[in-house]
């Protein structure tokens, strides 16, 4: 299956998807919607161990994005599920009941790229998958609510210059231009960035990519809040 559209919410090229939900009707509905949107659904399973077994088959394409039910009926922990899926190289988009704020926060802390409520229209789910497939963080109202519920959620204590570097870099500037704007050497800017990442690792919120740093900057109030209408942040 190939999709060659660049329209909003649709993949520019074929994007492989996997679905994990313990309700068969939900899986069937999501599979149909993803197929209509041009995605290639490589697996749909009721739990993560079954998904891992399917993806371990060399004949099955890796899933770029896994749409993961927040609370599965097998008693598994959301942190374990998210980390297990991330270990396959897939991005995780959590499909959540809106009132599970603590569990959503746990999923985000484990590395999920975002959360989309089960009450969201199908078009919003498809758009969210497209955002995550592009490697971008899905910054929406649900994501913001999880962070707002705990203002001290995994904040790293950054110094003033570190905050300046993070603000400019996470806003989209290349590190060379960040250094120029702050009047420091490129190597110094790199040292600040390395320190920032180390501090986030210390609080259990590693930020290896620029998108991760964007998320941390929003969480810490270093960058402005989220645009609920836009629904996602651009690099």
From TrEMBL:
The protein's name in its UniProt record: Response regulator transcription factor
Gene3D superfamilies: 3.40.50.2300, Winged helix-like DNA-binding domain superfamily/Winged helix DNA-binding domain
InterPro entries, A to Z: CheY-like_superfamily, NreC/VraR/RcsB-like_REC, Sig_transdc_resp-reg_C-effctor, Sig_transdc_resp-reg_receiver, Tscrpt_reg_LuxR_C, WalR-like, WH-like_DNA-bd_sf
Organism (species): Agromyces tropicus
Positions of the Response regulatory domain: 16-133
Keyword Transmembrane among record annotations: no
Transmembrane domains' residue ranges: none
Record SUPFAM superfamilies: C-terminal effector domain of the bipartite response regulators, CheY-like
Residue positions, PTM 4-aspartylphosphate: 69
Origin: domain of life: Bacteria
Keyword terms of this UniProt record: DNA-binding, Phosphoprotein
A Pfam family assignment: GerE
């Amino acid at each position: 299956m190939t999709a060659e559209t660049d329209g909003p919410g649709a993949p520019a090229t074929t994007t492989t998807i996997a679905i994990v939900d313990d309700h068969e009707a939900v899986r069937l509905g999501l599979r149909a919607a993803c197929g209509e949107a041009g995605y290639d659904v490589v697996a749909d399973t009721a739990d993560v161990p079954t998904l891992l077994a399917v993806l371990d088959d060399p004949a099955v394409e890796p899933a770029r994005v896994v749409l993961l039910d927040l609370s599965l009926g097998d008693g598994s922990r959301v942190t374990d599920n998210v980390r297990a899926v991330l270990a396959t190289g897939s991005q995780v988009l959590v499909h959540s009941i809106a009132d599970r704020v603590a569990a959503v926060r746990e999923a985000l802390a484990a590395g999920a790229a975002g959360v989309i409520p089960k009450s969201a229209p199908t078009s919003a789910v498809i758009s969210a998958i497209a955002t995550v497939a592009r490697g971008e963080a899905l910054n929406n109202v649900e994501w913001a609510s999880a962070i707002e519920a705990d203002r001290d959620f995994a904040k790293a204590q950054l110094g003033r210059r570190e905050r300046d570097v993070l603000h400019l870099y996470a806003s989209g500037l290349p590190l060379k231009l960040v250094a120029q704007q702050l009047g420091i050497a490129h190597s110094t800017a790199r040292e600040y960035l390395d320190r920032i990442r180390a501090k986030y690792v210390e609080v259990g919120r590693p930020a290896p990519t620029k998108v991760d740093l964007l998320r941390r900057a929003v969480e810490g109030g270093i960058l402005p809040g989220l645009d609920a209408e836009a629904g996602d942040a651009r690099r």
